[in-house]
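User: I'm new to structure prediction. If I give you an amino acid sequence, what do you actually give back? Let's try with this one:
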Amino acid sequence: MSGKRIVSLIASATEIVCALGFEKEIVGRSHECDYPLSVKKLPSCTEANLDSSVSSREIDNQVKKILQEALSVYRVKEDLLKDLRPDVIVTQTQCEVCAVSLSDVEKVVGEWVDSSTNIVSLEPNSLEDVWHDIDKVARALEAPQRGARLIDQLKSQIAKTNRKTASLSRRPTIACIEWIDPLMAAGNWMPELVEMAGGENLFGEAGKHSPWMTWEELEAKDPEIIVVLPCGFDLRRTREEMGPLTTRPGWSKLRAVREERVCLTDGNQYFNRPGPRLVEAHEMLAEIFHPGEFAFGHRGAGWDYL
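Assistant: Good question. You get back a string of structure tokens that encode the predicted 3D arrangement of the chain. For your 306 residues, that looks like this:
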């Protein structure tokens, strides 16, 4: 049962490894791995090649420039990774902007990695992919039964909420915003979570990458509820970045604004991490969409009104 030296280079994978009961085997993490809090004492094997303290627009400009120059958004600390002698390295191929990618890892470890080192690459584009990735990590750690139990537990929690949302006749229209400036809608697993939480998703397709959207498109569909969940931002930072939306002519005319149903979230911790806490993200959406029916206690921590 494991006993392996694990390096996780993506926050969601770190959460998966810990949920499987192997936190003590983790010897290194990415600079973004911060949950559970105890993992922050581990050495960080990566760093970003951009300044995330600037505005949403400036972050987007930096990312686009880096990618246009065929560079990586992140850097793997090769010497540290080599010193840690990992048996298992977990990375991802889903998004080169979100975290260190498989190609980043392969470039660094290609010359020295031992043939016994297992590089596990995750690619979650849908909720089903998240379950598959949990199983993949569990099998890499020689604990498939733990993986099966965790998946069953998470599915059961979601199903419990789904049974109630399925009986609700009212399904409000929802716009999920994954980036504020420029505007991007939420894709991947988010449209599924929206539908299961009892909402009608207006932008983004399940299983597909998050699409860009225009202000005119948002105005035209005029959603009943707007959920803002920027990738990498917590609740406080999301509130600070709302200016490009709230200062637009026409913002106050949107139905969600008039009815005070614009909700800000901690997208970084919950909605953008394809791991166990998507269950809590699902609960938050149910609270937001149907406040008279659900009260899981997430308001103020995971989400709040604008």
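You can read the tokens as a compact description of the fold. Here is one thing that stands out. The mean pLDDT is 89.
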